[in-house]
Amino acid sequence: MAKPNRSAFIVIEGLDRSGKSTQAQILHERLTNAKTPVELIKFPDRTTAIGKMIDSYLRSESELDDRAIHLLFTANRWELASHITTLLASGTTVIADRYAFSGIAFSARKGLPYEWCRGPDVGLPAPDLTLFLNIEPAVARARGGYGEERYEREEVQRGVRELFEKIGREMQTEGSSWVQVDAGKGKDEVAEDIWGAVEPLIGSCDSPIGRLWDTPPHFNSGA
Fold first, then answer.
1. What are the UniProt keywords, alphabetically (predicted)?
2. Would you give the distance in Å from CA 194 to the centre of its chain?
3. What pLDDT was estimated at residue 174?
């Protein structure tokens, strides 16, 4: 097998309280223990100037026009785009807890045009694998902390779930790897399902970094 020229970009998506952050951390620890260089990035990154504005909005401490907040979320991703590319090229696996797909799903759920929502993210680094943690909104609602932020309402989450399914179908049609994971299982079972999808990617990316909705990446699993 040819020597890989970069590492994998893995995105974990899902509804609120689907276990994204927990599973991202478990995966990060697993790769670290396996001596695989890895960095975990969480979107939105609330530490930047833009991220602090987003944080205030999500906590319902401020109000912004729907289009304005959507563009802030996108800008927050672009703030880290070159950093992600640099990490991948240097051999560091990148795990993202949420990405552009969340921005599209939540904004389109509010009634903004789907294509308009997608436009500002065109050209971002494309994931080699997107793991969608699927869970019934009613099950997510029963988990601790639900309802603390603006979008954590069951009717909102149901609409967002439908849009994630649409995005997933489109990504698969374009040749990107989108894997649905049953997030209603126990934490350890979910972690094993995720690892089963991630393991073939480690050390096997021998293609250039793709760009969202431009040049989707294709990976060689070595099979």
1. Kinase, Transferase
2. 13
3. 77
For residue range 108-139, list pLDDT tens digits in order: 999 999 999 999 999 999 999 999 999 887 77
Helical pair 154-173 and 100-109, crossing angle rounded to 10 deg:
130
How is the chain split into domains, by residue range? 9-201
Residue 19 near residue 138, CB atoms below 8 Å? no
b (16+ CB within 10 A) / e for 84-117: bbebbeeebbbbbbbbbbbbbbbbbbeeeeeeeb
Instruction: Give the position of tokens 């993202």.
Output: 96
Distance CA(171)–CA(218), nearest Å, equals: 12
- The pTM (predicted TM-score) of the whole model is 0.87
Helix (H) or strand (E) holding 179: strand 178-182
Q: Percent of the chain having pLDDT more than 90?
A: 70
The fold of 9-201 is Rossmann fold (3.40.50)
Neighbouring C-alpha atoms within 13 Å toward the C-beta of 156: 15
